[in-house]
Amino acid sequence: MQTRRHPKKMMIGFALILALCMMGAAGIGRYMIPFDRVLSILLSPVFNLEPGWTEVEKTVIWSIRVPRILLAVLIGAGLSVSGAALQALFANPLVSSHVLGVSYGAGFGAALGILLSENHFVIQGLAILFGMIAIGITYKIGHSKKGVQLYMLVLAGVIVGALFQALISFIQYVADPEEKLPSIVYWLMGSLGGTSLNDLKIGIPLIGIGILMIWCIRWHLNVLSLSEEEAHSMGVNLKLLRSMIIGATTMITAVAVSLSGIIGFVGLVIPHFARMIVGHEHRVLIPATILLGGIYLLVIDTMARSVTAAEIPLSVLTAIIGAPFFALLLRRTGGRWHD
Fold it and tell me: Looking at the UniProt record for this protein, which Gene Ontology cellular component terms does it annotate, in alphabetical order (predicted)?
C-alpha cells in the first residue's frame, strides 16, 4: 500500500480548508454577510463581543445557514467514506453507495412518504425503513449455501436497485401532477433546502455512528483482498469486517437519502480524488475522504443556493462537476486502480 509523505500535515491542511469553507459558506448566499460579521456572530456565544451585526444577520446564520452547513458536511463525509469502504470491500473502483440498492430503496420510501403525507418525520422514517428493507432483500438474494459472496451481493444490489427505481417511477405516475409530483421529483434530485435543527438531531447520531464504525476499522480495510485463511492468520475476521462495512454504509446512505434526497457521484469521485492526494493506505485514506467529502458537498451546496435565484438540485451539480472529473481521471489512470 502506497501513501504520501506527511499525512498528518495533509489532514491538518484539509481540516483548515474545511473550517474556512464553513465560515465562508455562512456568509455567502442571496443575502450576503461580510466575513468579519460572520466570524463575530459565530464567536459571540463563546466571547462577550460587542454586537456589530443586525438581528436579521444573526438569525440567518444560526437558524438557516449553520444547520445546513453542518448537514452538508456530515452527508458529504458520510457518502464519501461509504464509497471508500465499499470500494475496498468489493475491490472495485466503480462501486459507490448505490451498489447495494439502499439509495433507491430509501428514495422509494421518501417518495411514498410524500405521496401519503406531508409530515417531514413520516417521509424520513419511511426512507430509512425502506433503505433497510432494500439491504435486507439484497442480503437475502445474495446469500447461498456457501454464505454471502461479494459478486452475488453486487448482482443482488443491481436487481434490488432496479426494482425500487421502477417503484419510484410508479409512485411518480400515480402522484397528483400539480401537488405531489413536483415535490417528489425535486426531492429525488437532492436538496438541503429547509434543513432544520431536527434534521441534525437525526443525522448527527446515525450518520456519525456509521462514520465512526468505518473509522474504527480503517486499520483492517487493507486486508480485505486476502483470503479467509490469510486474514484469520493476521487476526482479522473477514465475515465480521464485511458485515460491519455493509451495516455502516447502509445506515449512512439510508439516513443521508432520508434527509437530502439521492445525491450521486460523491461516494464515487471523492475516494478517487483522495487516493490521488494521499495514496491507497486506508489508515490515511479514510480520514482524508471524510474531510474532502465534507468540503466537496459543502462547496456544491453553497453553489446550489447562491449561483441562481432558484436553488439548483444537488445531484445536477454533483453530476456536472463529478462526471467530467471522473472521465479525466479514467483517461489519466487508464482504468488502473492501484499505482
Answer: plasma membrane
